[in-house]
Amino acid sequence: MNKRTYAGIPEQYAKSETSKIVLIPVPYDGTSTWQKGSDKGPEAFLEASENMELYDIETNSEVYKNGIYLAEAVTENSSPEKMVEAVHAAAKVYINKNRFVTLVGGEHSISIGSIRAFNECFDNLTVVQIDAHADLRKEYDGSKCNHACAVYEASQTTNLIQVGIRSMDKAEKTVMDLERVFFAHDMVNDDFWMENAIDLMTTNVFITIDLDAFDPSIMPSTGTPEPGGLLWYETLDFLKKIFAEKNVVGFDIVELCPNKLERSSDFLAAKLYYKMLSYKFKDNEDDLGRDFDENFEESNGKTSKFEDEDYE
Ligand SMILES: [Mn+2]
Questions:
Q1: Whose C-alpha in 9, 82, 196, 208 is 20 to 30 A from the C-alpha of 159?
Q2: Among 139, 138, 70, 77, which Cα is nearest to 107's?
Q3: Ligand 1 centroid to 140 CA: how many Å?
Q4: Residue 152: partners with Cβ closer than 8 Å, 6 or more residues away
């Protein structure tokens, strides 16, 4: 039997040596507190991806042709700390090979490992956390690697910007930088939250998306749903702006907690992932044959952005 590829793409686009993009599944659900099942997230995500159209209308692109390598899943689960270390190590392997590294969870604690890896490899990293929950606890349930602590370390070591937040403990406010938080109840009445959030970002950006940031009406299959969340097009609009204006160095998508009776959430996660890749690589359509290193450097460049805008 042939090896499974992301979204069932032809093997020529799924090779480890030539793919510009790497997807690392992390089916971990060791510390979740309410609904269990996010360990099944990567499988449901991959299955939905296999049933998705691979041409993106909006960007007029087929981003999979840049190559998407489905890496071996990180399955270490002997302790939250060991899982975080394993994610950190796996992410670093591919970042150091200049791949565009993405991860799919699994619960949000996996992001402690991914953020640590990106922060070690990229200068002045901004972490954009799109999430219903603040996740700023220093420790929870006896561990610093609990899902409730997902961005505590990032709050201390990176430029953390929190978006969509609508649930937290009062004590988390002592850690929170209120200048860098966009609460859901404020966003709904603020026409400029996207621009204001982007103004706070440095050049290098890592995005961590907890799917519970979305409104439960469109994303019910998540561990801890919260009313009053983001909708589809506003989220895409925000992401598109970040990809256009910043050097997004990688991202993760977490907390898909699949429910066999409700598959549209799996599909939302699959489509969100592919949309983000489409935004990242949309300008590469004409030079698919070129070396990734060249593109990689160009995306860090200062002049190309304005040249592109002249054509629009
Ligand atoms: Mn979270």
A1: 82
A2: 77
A3: 13
A4: 135, 136, 137, 138, 144, 175
Q: How confident is the model over 66-96, as pLDDT tens digits?
A: 999 999 999 999 999 999 999 999 999 999 9
Taking the centre of ligand 1 as the mean of its atom positions, its distance from the CA of residue 108, in whole angstroms, is 5
Q: How far is the CA of 65 from the centre of ligand 1 (A)?
A: 31
CA dist 156 and 167 (Å) reads 20
How confident is the model over 138-184, as pLDDT tens digits? 999 999 999 999 999 999 999 999 999 999 999 999 999 999 999 99
Tokens of 282: 């949309």
Residue 215 per-residue DSSP state: -
- Cα separation, 264 vs 48, in Å, equals 9
For CA atoms 150, 70, 218, 242, give the dihedral sign.
positive
To the nearest 10°, the Cα dihedral for 299, 302, 305, 307?
-120
From ligand 1's centre to the CA of 98, what distance in Å?
Answer: 27
Ligand 1 centre to CA of 72 (Å) is: 24
CA–centroid distance, 207 to ligand 1, in Å, is: 12
Domain 6-291 listed as CATH 3.40.50.2000 = no
Tokens of 70: 């489905």
